[in-house]
C-alpha cells in the first residue's frame, strides 16, 4: 500500500550505484518503445558472439512461439569462462563453502576453465554430443557447476534434478528427458547428514534404458554399489580426458537446459530454455538488480537444482565475470549463525535468499545475527515467495542494519530471469512489494473474464510481450505449453500468480491463483501429491490444499478418503507421509492429514477446493455458497472431523 512507509535509496548507495533512477526510467522506456534496439545493444555489450544474429526477436503469443537473436551463434560456457581469462584468470570464480565450517575452496577462472574443458571431453569420450540430454543430480559442490558448464560447452542439454528429490521423481525426469547420461555424487552432505545420492540414482536408473553412462563424483568416499558397464568415477574420467576442448558454437535458439517444475495438473513439466536469450537476461539482471561491481563477493543461497541456482549462482554471475559463492549446507548448521559467519569469513557484499530462510532465522532471535559483524554486506535480496512485512523489517533492521537495500525479486522457472524487482540504486522500496518491472518486461492485470485492468487494482498477473529468457516450450509437449501459459488469456503469457498494482505503479505479488503450492519457496503441484497419496491401498481419493504456515509460507493439508473397511490411524498417517516422500521427496510430505468422510463435490463431480481451503484455514464463517454441492452435508462432516486430524 502506498500509504505504507517507503524506504528511499540510501545516500551512500546512491553514490556508488551502477544505475540511478533517471537511467532506469530511460532504459525501461526504450526497452518498451523499441525492444529490438534495446536488446541488440545489451546483447552486444554483455555477450560474446561467434556469429552475430540476423533478427533480434520473432514471437507470437497466440501460438506460444518465441525466438530471439536468430542466426546468431555463441556458446554459454565460453561466455561464462573462456572470455574472462585474459583479464580474470587468477580471480576467484567460485568460492565453495562446505557443510562443515572448516571446508572451503577457491576456484579461479583459470581452474574453472581447466576443469570444465576436461569434464566436457570426459562427456564426449562417453559419446555424449550436441542435443543429448544429461541429467545432473548433485549436492552443492563445485562439480555441479562444472557439470552444467561442461554440457553447455559441448551443446548437450542439461537437466538438473534437485538432490532432495526421491528416486521415483528422478526416474520420471530422466525418462521424460530421454537422457543418455547421469552425473551424480557418491553421497551428499547437508547439515551434518548424509544424502545417499548414488543409491538413489541406482534405484532411479533401473528401468531407464536410455542412460548408458553414470559419472560419479567422489564427495564422501562412502560405500556405494557399482555397475562396471555404466558407472565411471569422475576423477578417473577427468584424468584420461584431454585438457583442450573447443566450445561447440550453437545457435541462439539451441536449448541450453530443461528444468522440471510443477504445475496445477499432471507430472512436472520440462521447461526448456535456449542459449542466447536466457544467458543475456540472466546476465543483465544479475548485473543491475544486484548492482554487481568488479570485486564484489556475491552469494545466492539457493540450490542449483532450482532455477534460482541456474540463473543466479551459475549463469548470470559467471557471464559477468563475478565471484559467486556456493554453499553446501543449511542456515542452521552447526548453529543459527552459520550464514552470517559465512558472510564474515568471505566478506560477502551481496546476499540473496528466500523469505522462508529469513523467517526460520528470525525465529531463532537476534543474537545469532548480532554477534556477527556483517559490515561487508551492501545489498540483500529475496526470491521465491511473497515476503511478509515482519520478516522484511527484521531482515532490513537486524541483518542489514538499515544500511542495505532489499531487492524483492519476482520471477519464475518459466521466466528464466528476474522480471519485477527494484534496481537498488534507483527505486525506493516498499516492504512486501517487488516494485517495478525489469527492462523489457510488460506486466498486466486481467479480470476473470479476460479483460485487462487499468490503474491501481488487483487481478491475475500476465506478461504482455515476449522477453529474451522466456520459456520456449515444454519438453516434448508444445501443446502443454500453449494450454498452460497462453490459453487463459489469448495473446498474453499467464503467470499463475495474482498481483496488485498500487497508485505508484508498484507491483505486489499475492501468490498463486492456481493449484500450485509454495512450500518453503519450493513449488509443488497439488495434483502430484494427490497422485502419490492415492497409490496407498487404503486411500480412495485425495485432495490437497495449502494453508498459511509461519515458517514455510504454505503448509500442505491433505484430505484423504478411506477405502471401505479401512481405518484412519497414526500408523496410516505415517505410511502416507512416507509414501509421498518416496514418490516425490521430503519437501512434499503433508503437514496435516485429515481423514475425510467425503469430499465436497459439485454435481458434475468436481472437487470444490475453495471450501477445502477455507476449512484448512479454519475460516468456517466464510465458506461461501455450498448450495451447489452434490451433498452439502459433507461440509458439516468435514468441520466435525477437522479437530481430529493428524
Ligand atoms: O508464486 C510466485 C513465487 O514463486 C513462483 C515461481 O516459482 P519457481 O518457478 O519455483 O521459481 C522460484 C524462483 C524464481 C511464482 O509464480 N514467487 C517467486 N518470487 C516471488 C514469488 N512470489 C512473491 N514474491 C516474489 N519475489
Task: Summarize it.
Helices cover 32% and strands 24% of the residues.
Walk me through the structure:
- With 646 residues, this protein is α/β, with parallel strands linked by helices.
- Helix content is 32%, strand content 24%.
- The protein contains 21 helices and 31 strands.
- Strands 5-4-17-16-18-19-20 form a 7-stranded mixed β-sheet, with helices on both faces.
- Adenosine-5'-monophosphate-propyl ester (PRX) binds at residues 261, 307-308, 383-386, 408-413, 434, 495-497, 509, 511-512, 518, 523.
Largest sheet: 7 strands, mixed
Identify every distinct bound molecule in the structure, by name, code or SMILES: adenosine-5'-monophosphate-propyl ester
Number of helices: 21
What is the subunit arrangement here? single chain
How do the strands and helices of this protein lay out in sequence?
Layout lengths: L10 H6 L4 H13 L1 H12 L8 E6 L4 E6 L2 E2 L1 H5 L4 H4 L3 E6 L6 E5 H17 L7 E5 L4 H13 L2 E4 L6 H11 L3 E5 L2 E3 L2 E3 L1 H9 L7 E5 L13 E3 H7 L9 E2 L3 E7 L7 E6 H15 L7 E4 L6 H13 L3 E5 L10 H9 L3 E4 L1 H8 L4 H4 L8 E5 L5 H11 L6 E4 L33 E4 L5 E2 L3 E7 L9 E2 L3 H8 L7 E9 L5 E6 L3 E4 L2 E4 H8 L5 E11 L3 E10 L7 H14 L8 E4 L13 H8 L16 H10 L4
Parallel strand pairs: 4-17, 6-7, 6-8, 8-11, 11-12, 16-17, 16-18, 18-19, 19-20, 30-31
Antiparallel strand pairs: 1-2, 3-13, 4-5, 9-10, 14-15, 15-24, 21-22, 21-23, 23-25, 25-26, 27-28, 29-30
Helix pairs in contact: 2-3, 6-7, 6-10, 8-9, 11-12, 14-16
Bound molecules: adenosine-5'-monophosphate-propyl ester (PRX).
Amino acid at each position: 500500500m502506498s500509504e505504507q512507509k517507503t524506504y528511499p535509496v540510501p545516500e551512500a548507495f546512491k553514490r556508488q550505484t551502477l544505475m540511478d533512477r533517471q537511467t532506469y526510467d530511460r532504459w525501461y522506456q526504450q526497452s518498451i518503445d523499441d525492444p529490438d534496439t534495446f536488446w541488440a545493444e545489451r546483447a552486444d555489450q554483455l555477450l560474446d558472439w561467434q556469429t552475430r544474429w540476423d533478427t533480434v526477436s520473432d514471437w507470437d503469443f497466440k501460438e506460444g512461439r518465441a525466438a530471439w537473436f536468430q542466426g546468431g551463434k555463441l556458446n554459454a560456457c565460453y561466455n561464462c569462462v573462456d572470455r574472462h581469462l585474459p583479464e580474470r584468470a587468477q580471480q576467484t570464480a567460485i568460492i565453495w563453502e562446505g557443510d562443515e565450517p572448516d571446508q572451503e575452496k577457491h576456484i579461479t577462472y583459470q581452474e574453472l576453465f581447466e576443469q570444465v574443458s576436461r569434464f566436457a571431453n570426459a562427456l564426449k569420450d562417453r559419446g555424449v554430443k550436441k542435443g543429448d540430454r544429461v541429467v545432473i543430480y548433485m549436492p552443492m559442490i563445485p562439480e555441479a557447476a562444472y557439470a552444467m558448464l561442461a554440457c553447455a560447452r559441448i551443446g548437450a542439454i542439461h537437466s538438473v534434478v534437485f538432490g532432495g528429490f526421491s528416486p521415483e521423481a528422478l526416474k520420471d525426469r530422466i525418462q521424460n528427458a530421454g537422457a543418455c547420461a547421469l552425473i551424480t555424487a557418491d553421497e551428499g552432505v547437508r547439515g551434518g547428514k548424509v544424502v545417499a545420492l548414488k543409491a538413489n540414482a541406482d534405484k532411479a536408473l533401473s528401468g531407464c534404458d536410455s542412460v548408458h553412462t553414470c559419472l560419479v563424483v567422489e564427495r564422501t568416499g562412502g560405500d556405494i554399489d557399482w555397475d562396471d558397464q555404466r558407472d565411471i568415477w569422475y576423477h578417473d574420467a577427468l584424468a584420461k580426458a584431454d585438457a583442450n576442448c573447443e566450445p561447440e558454437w550453437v545457435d541462439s535458439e539451441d536449448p541450453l537446459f530443461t528444468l522440471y517444475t510443477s504445475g496445477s495438473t499432471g507430472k512436472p513439466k520440462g521447461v526448456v530454455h535456449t542459449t542466447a536469450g536466457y544467458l543475456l537476461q540472466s546476465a543483465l539482471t544479475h548485473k543491475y538488480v544486484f548492482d554487481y561491481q568488479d570485486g564484489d563477493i556475491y552469494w545466492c543461497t539457493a540450490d542449483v537444482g532450482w532455477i534460482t541456482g541456474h540463473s543466479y549462482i551459475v549463469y548470470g554471475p559467471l557471464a559477468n565475470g563475478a565471484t559467486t559463492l556456493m554453499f553446501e549446507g543449511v542456515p542452521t548448521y552447526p548453529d543459527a549463525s552459520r550464514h552470517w559467519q559465512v558472510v564474515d569469513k568471505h566478506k560477502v557484499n551481496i546476499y540473496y535468499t528466500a523469505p522462508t530462510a529469513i523467517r526460520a532465522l528470525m525465529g531463532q532471535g537476534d543474537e545469532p545475527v548480532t554477534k556477527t559483524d556483517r559490515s561487508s554486506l551492501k545489498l540483500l535480496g529475496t526470491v521465491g515467495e511473497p515476503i511478509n512485512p515482519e520478516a522484511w523489517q527484521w531482515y532490513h533492521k537486524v541483518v542489514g542494519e538499515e544500511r542495505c537495500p532489499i531487492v524483492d525479486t519476482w520471477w519464475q522457472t518459466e521466466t528464466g530471469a528476474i522480471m519485477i524487482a527494484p534496481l537498488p540504486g534507483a527505486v525506493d522500496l516498499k516492504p512486501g512489494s517487488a516494485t517495478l518491472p525489469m527492462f523489457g518486461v510488460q506486466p498486466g492485470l486481467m479480470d476473470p473474464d479476460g479483460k485487462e485492468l487499468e490503474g491501481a487494482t488487483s487481478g491475475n498477473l500476465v506478461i504482455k510481450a515476449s522477453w529474451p529468457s522466456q520459456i520456449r516450450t515444454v519438453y516434448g509437449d508444445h501443446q502443454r505449453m500453449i494450454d498452460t501459459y497462453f490459453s487463459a488469456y489469448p495473446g498474453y503469457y499467464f503467470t499463475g500468480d495474482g498481483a496488485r498494482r498500487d497508485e505508484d505503479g508498484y507491483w505486489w505479488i499475492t501468490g498463486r491463483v492456481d493449484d500450485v503450492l509454495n512450500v518453503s519457496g519450493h513449488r509443488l503441484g497439488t495434483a502430484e501429491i494427490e497422485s502419490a497419496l492415492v497409490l496407498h491401498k487404503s486411500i480412495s481419493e485425495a485432495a490437497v490444499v495449502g494453508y498459511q504456515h509461519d515458517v514455510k509460507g504454505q503448509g500442505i493439508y491433505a484430505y484423504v478418503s478411506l477405502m471401505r473397511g479401512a481405518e484412519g490411524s497414526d500408523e496410516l498417517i505415517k505410511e502416507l507421509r512416507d509414501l509421498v516422500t518416496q514418490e516425490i521427496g521430503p519437501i512434499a510430505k503433508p503437514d496435516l492429514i485429515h481423514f475425510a468422510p467425503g469430499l465436497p463435490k459439485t454435481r458434475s463431480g468436481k472437487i470444490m477446493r475453495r471450501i477445502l481451503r477455507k476449512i484448512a484455514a479454519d475460516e468456517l464463517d466464510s465458506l461461501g455458497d455450498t448450495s451447489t454441492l452434490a451433498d452439502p452435508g459433507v461440509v458439516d462432516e468435514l468441520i466435525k472431523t477437522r479437530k481430529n486430524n493428524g
